[in-house]
Amino acid sequence: MPYELYYWDGIQGRGEYVRLALEEAGADYIDITRESGSGRGTAAMMTMLKSFGGLHTPFAPPFLKDGDLVISHVANILFYLGPKLGLVPEDDGLRYVANGLQLTITDFVCEVHDTHHPIATELYYEDQKEAAKARATSFIDHRIPKYLGYFERVLSSGDQKHSVGDKLSYVDLSLFQVIEGLRYAFPRATQTLGRDYPLLVALHDRVQQRPNIARYLASPRRIPFNEDGIFRHYPELDQDAA
To answer: From the centroid of its chain, how far is CA 57?
Structure first.
């Protein structure tokens, strides 16, 4: 049976980290909300959420269904899929290293979101633009260097081509997405990434050229970045890095 991925339609969002792993592995999966018909579409996802009970209810998408098993949260999903898709080392210790790196990416993505929604998620961006400007300035000057500097060191401590072990992992795919998203959201702030974080940019470029990823990026399955997702381009929030 194919994997079933449940996430909001129309945005890459957090679901994209799972999609990249499934696409790279050539896995058979259904992106439920992006298809029509019985058991498909956003309504099917909401029905699925309501059908769970107690501890088994995911807080929010994305979640993955594999047979009767339902797994929520990006890092948790990738921790499950990694061994099945050959996207994590076989060594148990390195699997936990990969999970820790993915959780750090989760923290970073949350901070990206908060640049345009620093006060409240339920408010529109236009209702918190002044606070967003201050948050984005701090993010560009301090948080981008902190996180990317960390991942640059991770790469330099290994073979300089892979974040975990000596083969491609789901962490590498997620770092590709982080660089893509930052370049979309903050093109001025990230124009010197190649100079400041050469190993990360080289990793991004290698992932982009992988046959399955290249086909995916050129296909309609790859939803373009937009101002409804996590990585949003608001010119007034972008600036040259300090």
So the answer is: 22
Domain count, the chain: 2
Residue 185 lies in a domain: yes
The enclosing domain of 97 has a CATH number of: 1.20.1050.10
Domain carrying residue 192: 92-210
Query: How many distinct helices (H) and strands (E) make up the chain?
Result: 10, 4
Does 239 fall in a domain?
no
Tell me if 170 sits within 8 A of 82, measured CB to CB.
yes
pLDDT tens digits in sequence order for the chain, 242 residues long: 899 999 999 999 999 999 999 999 999 999 999 888 888 889 888 888 887 766 677 888 999 999 989 999 999 999 999 999 999 999 999 999 999 999 999 999 999 999 999 999 999 999 999 999 999 999 999 999 999 999 999 999 999 999 999 999 999 999 999 999 999 999 999 999 999 999 999 999 999 999 999 999 999 999 999 999 999 999 999 998 87
CA dihedral 210, 214, 216, 222 (to 10 degrees): 120
The residues facing 31 across adjacent strands are 5
**Spatial separation of the C-alpha atoms in residues 97 and 89, rounded to whole Å:** 10
Cβ atoms of 173 and 20 within 8 Å: the answer is yes
